[in-house]
Amino acid sequence: MFTKPVSSPCDDFFYQYVSFMNQILCSLCAVLLFATTALADPPKKQAPKAMLQHIVLFKFKPETTPEKVTEIIAAFEALPSKIKEIKSFQWGTNNSPEKLDKGLTHAFILTFDSAKDRDTYLPHPAHKQFGSVVGPWLADVTVVDFVNQAK
């Protein structure tokens, strides 16, 4: 028959000592892990890619109806599906309180990976077709291109 060995006070002390040392060791490991993580260099952020922004501003002729403006915007919005070089397309109407818009009411931003892609877009047949749709209705147009200086 199996009997449980009798433990001595010395065994109890040794067990408590080992248990205490394990707790200390685990705590030190946790502190060391936390310290190395906290003091480590943060991961390097990858610099955003410099992309070309093509900004187009329209001033419509007074006789341009809201329905015609909607039709023109829809035609402009369709260009990214026809011209693969356009990476993004945004538009909106002027709401600046500064009163420096010179009558320009609609802004469009097209994003390209490079000037080369923009240069492919400009003579593209879909872009030329859009120009023939919008041209008769414009009193003025302004275009500004820049490569973003993202950091």
UniProtKB/TrEMBL annotation:
Residues 1-40 form the signal peptide. SUPFAM superfamilies: Dimeric alpha+beta barrel. Residues 52-146 form the Stress-response A/B barrel domain. The keyword Signal applies. PANTHER family: PTHR33178, STRESS-RESPONSE A_B BARREL DOMAIN-CONTAINING PROTEIN (PTHR33178:SF10). Homodimer. This is Stress responsive alpha-beta barrel domain protein. It comes from the Bacteria. Keywords: Signal. Transmembrane segments: none annotated. It comes from Fibrella aestuarina BUZ 2. InterPro entries: Dabb, Dimeric_a/b-barrel, HS1/DABB1-like.
